[in-house]
Amino acid sequence: MVAAPLRVVFFGTPEFAVPSLDALLASRHTVVAVVCQPDRPRGRGHKTSAGPVKARALSAGVPVLQPERLKDDSFLASLTALRADLGVVAAYGKILTDAVLGVPRLGLINVHASLLPRHRGAAPVHRAIIAGERETGVTIMRVVKALDAGPMLAAAHRTIGDEETSDVVERDLARIGAPLLVQIADDLAAGAAVEVPQDDAAATYAPRLTKDDGGLDWNASAHGIHNLVRGLHPWPHASTFLHGRRLIVLRALASAEPAEAAPGTVLETRNEFVVAAGSGRVHLVEVQAEGKRPMTAREFLAGHRVTPGDRFTPAP
């Protein structure tokens, strides 16, 4: 006997959540509503507009709720009236309250972009790349009050390429997580889901990124700098200062060749843009002067006076 389809309420806001929403919309289950964060100013003009999940929900004719506060009585009444069997969370962006967790009959599950218990928190993909990890994945877990600490229902693994940036990896994890989510929804509907507790002793945390994370420390290893540049792309980007002006580093490579110069010293500007690190050398590939367009290192050097022996410095 086939289990009855579930009534699902979906919590999500950014692009990462769209494949999961699409997978549920294409499944036998019914998405009865989508909960998103309120519209925010976006883009260069800072115009208020709908986020990716809201736009997708509206195009599919799914009702959208955008509470400022999850504790609002009017929102909780609307959520309860949906008679949802299951709640699904994918990068919603707010901690769910006890009242919300108690509404769906089967509770809530989350699509989390790491192999839990590693990298609990808001920036799991970025932090994994910054740490130089070679593997990540997606975990479907039950939502509990503690941050990303609920039992796990399924996981899928993915390697991280040496040159991959966080946006590329995150986009792929969103694609991988979507069918896994539907599989778990099917299992929950059939009463066949298996929950495995996390090992809290092995947990690590991935705090939200801030602009302060972007400051390059040239005393770090070349490979560490390379990983920071990858992990902070496309935001907030790694940056440094040259001649007192901020330079955003969009792409870099690392070599273990000894620099034999103080960290941050420019080593070569003729055929490549090479800088000494704490160990090894950083080859700048693509940079952006503040307020200017991105350009290759060669284009930058053609328009700026930079010579071997110049030094990159911390923020003034």
Structure description:
With 316 residues, this protein is α+β, with helices and mostly antiparallel strands. It is built from eight helices and 16 strands. 25% of the residues lie in helices and 26% in strands. The protein has helices at 18-26, 52-59, 73-81, 98-101, 124-130, 166-190, 222-231, 297-303; strands at 7-12, 30-35, 40-42, 47-49, 64-65, 86-90, 108-112, 135-142, 152-159, 238-242, 245-255, 266-268, 273-276, 281-289, 295-296, 312-313. The chain folds into two domains: 7-202, Formyl transferase, N-terminal domain (Rossmann fold); 211-313, Roll (Methionyl-tRNA Fmet Formyltransferase, Chain A, domain 2), CATH 3.10.25. It starts with 6 loop residues before the first strand and ends with a strand. The protein has a seven-stranded mixed beta sheet. Strands 10, 11, 12, 13, 14, 15 and 16 form a seven-stranded antiparallel beta sheet that branches. α1 links the parallel β1 and β2 (30-35). The model has no long low-confidence stretch (mean pLDDT 96).
Unreliable spans are: none
Mean pLDDT: 96
Which homologous superfamily in CATH is the superfamily of the largest domain? Formyl transferase, N-terminal domain
CATH-defined architecture of the largest domain: 3-Layer(aba) Sandwich
In total, how many domains does the architecture comprise? Answer: 2
- Fraction of residues in helix: 25-40%
Distance between the termini: 69 Å
CATH topology of the largest domain: Rossmann fold
Q: Please give the radius of gyration in angstroms.
A: 23 Å
Q: Please report the total strand number as a whole number.
A: 16
The coarse silhouette is elongated
Strand order, sheet with most strands = 5-2-1-6-7-8-9
Order of helices and strands: EHEEEHEHEHEHEEHHEEEEEEHE
* Alpha-beta classification: alpha+beta
